[in-house]
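Entry for farnesyl diphosphate complex. Fields follow.
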Amino acid sequence: MSEPLNKSELVKLPLHVAIIMDGNGRWAAARGLPRLAGHRAGTENLREVIRATVEFGVKYLTIYAFSTENWGRPQEEINGLMRILEDVIDRELEELNREGVQLRHIGHLEGLSSLLQEKVRHAIALTKQNDRLVLSLAFNYGGRDEITCAVRRIVEDGVKPSEITQELIASYLFTSGLPDPDLIIRTSGEMRVSNFLIWQGAYAELYVTDVLWPDFGREDLFAALKDYATRDRRFGKLSDRRCG
Ligand code: FPP
């Protein structure tokens, strides 16, 4: 049974939380296990984190599961991560749908097996009317790649230079229609954004915790949200507290 947390402390909630789930390999190494055991463990806590996200009232959650750079990892690890995504969809889709979670994918489906592409497309189609939580899975995703593809399509569409605005560029990104992330959480202590939502996260608050991803749970998410509630977001302007 999970501990009661004082939710009145969350005086300001992010609409959109994005997570760089890091540290699976180190979690496994610390236990003398293969890296894939760390990735598997990193799916177990994901269920708890998704539940807690809904419980705390966050409406958008985006998780970084496989980057365009992860293709450079050993083939065995890549295959394992693909299998994990397949298993997660097979195992969790029904419940996610029942719980009102809408699944989205950001990144390229090309490059994944046709079976996996089919599973992801099916999951998206099945859940598209749900609105309790929008869960975006960044898989085969990279921020620079996303911007490059957007520019390419803008040019292909014959958009005039004078018509190019920030809103137009945003509408060509994989995240079109999603609000920008307010809070980006990174586990395992690394102080980097690693090509994740580099356009959308321009003004996101960053929260880095030393906790390794498989150990990150409901209370850690609560701590991140509590910290966010203390942040003074200025978006390049002056603080409300300093005005007047
Ligand atoms: C980073 O840890 C993690 C990844 C590259 C994969 C993230 C995948 C999961 C958490 C599994 C859930 C996946 C899906 C598809 C829902 P790392 O391997 O870089 O860890 P290290 O820095 O300690 O080596």
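NOTE: The pocket of farnesyl diphosphate is lined by residues 21-26, 39, 42-43, 46, 65, 70, 84-85, 88, 188, 213 (CB under 6 Å).
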